[in-house]
Amino acid sequence: MALAPPPSRYDVPDGWLIKRLARGDPGILDRIRARYGLAVYAIAYGELMDPRSSAAVVDETMAECARTARVHDRGQGSLYEHLAATARRLSGAHGSAGIQEGDVLPVPVTTHVVRERWTPPAQPIGSWSIVI
Questions:
Q1: What pTM was computed for the model?
Q2: Which is it for the CA torsion 86, 55, 23, 83, positive or negative?
Q3: Domains in the chain, start-ordered, CATH in brackets?
């Protein structure tokens, strides 16, 4: 007897998920979050650069998706496009509490070096300096 493969995150179309969500199926929002939660988080983090605020945007985006499922119009775009637009709008609302002047931001480490023209300072900095 052969076992059926486990269901994947993409085993049903988005339209089916929206219909079930509109009917009030309680487990469907978890499936939508499993499918698109990381993408929504990436959009929010790209705007806010703050993990907590980004996670809050994901929660708010999913809650709004549940509230608006009955009026979702497939002609206005896919489920992903709807979630992405909602995440961008909500990130803008959180943006005022996001990056402030003087914040220290993480700098991504890359494998390529950006070379810029370096000019020495007008005054010596000290007996020695390290330039990276």
A1: 0.64
A2: positive
A3: 14-95 (1.10.1740.10)
